[in-house]
Amino acid sequence: MMLKNKIRDLLAPYPGLFIPLYRMLAPPQHKLLLIGPETEIVIEGYPRSANTFAVVAFEQAQGARQVKIAHHLHAEAQVLEAVRRGLPAIVLIRRPYEAIRSLKVAFPAWDENYFLRRYVDFNRAIARVRDRVVVAEFERTTKDFGGIIGEVNAKFGTDFALFPDGEEAAQAVFARIDEINAAREGAHDLIARPAAHKEKAKGTVSLDFDPAMLARAEQLYTELTGLPARKH
Predict the structure, then answer these.
(1) Residue 196 confidence (pLDDT)
(2) Model confidence over 50-102: pLDDT tens digits?
(3) Does pLDDT of 105 surpass 60?
(4) Residue 198: inside a domain, yes or no?
């Protein structure tokens, strides 16, 4: 599994390689997440950056309208290909320390500096196309996703329905995520929403980051969001 993921991550910056190979080799259900001729919008981000919340909120906002979304591959190739095609793209981002701490809860055996390197590679690619996508920071995604869709409409001339935000709408999203989680066996630590056991587990995670790489990750976060780095 680790070797497969490492090969995928090596190809992720290169849409011309990643996309055809993924279409050829990925399981059928995963191919549905890949950008294709019917894709109307790409919603992608580094793992643990509110990817599931954003996709479910977007789908719920559209109601009966079926919109083809490319999402959840956590590969910059999806975003770069969207830019090449002139498609709308929302790129989700979270502070590196918080995103990787959450990942370590789910994958404790994996090296945190491998995760950090992927964070840098992913967001370095996004920085090159920053003015051609909508960047959605984690906190804003979960509290003002309607505003983010509004930015997409203004930037790309689309007419996607806005998410209503507010507690009731957010709870409806979490209810749908719970349904998705219930269908996934053996994924207790992979649930894509806040959970008490996850918060407790985060307190036990010890992270030994390469200082220079962490500084680069924080710099990219600030560059993409305009928000200051956070002291740990």
Answers:
(1) 43
(2) 999 999 999 999 999 999 999 999 999 999 999 999 999 999 999 999 999 99
(3) yes
(4) yes
Environment class of 112 (CB within 10 Å of its CB; exposed 0-12, middle 13-18, buried 19+): buried
* Residue 175 domain-assigned (yes or no): yes
Of the candidates 198, 164, 193, the one whose C-alpha atom is nearest the C-alpha of residue 181 is 193
Would you tell me how many other CB atoms lie within 10 Å of the CB of residue 191?
18
Tell me which residue range forms the domain holding 91: 32-225
Cα dihedral 190, 196, 201, 202, rounded to 10, equals: 90
Tell whether 206 is covered by a domain: yes
Q: Is residue 220 part of a domain?
A: yes
Task: Report the predicted TM-score, pTM, of the whole model to 2 decimal places.
Answer: 0.91
DSSP β-bridge partners for residue 41: 69
Q: Are the C-beta atoms of residues 102 and 48 closer than 8 Å to each other?
A: yes
Measured distance CA(137)–CA(221) in Å, rounded = 9
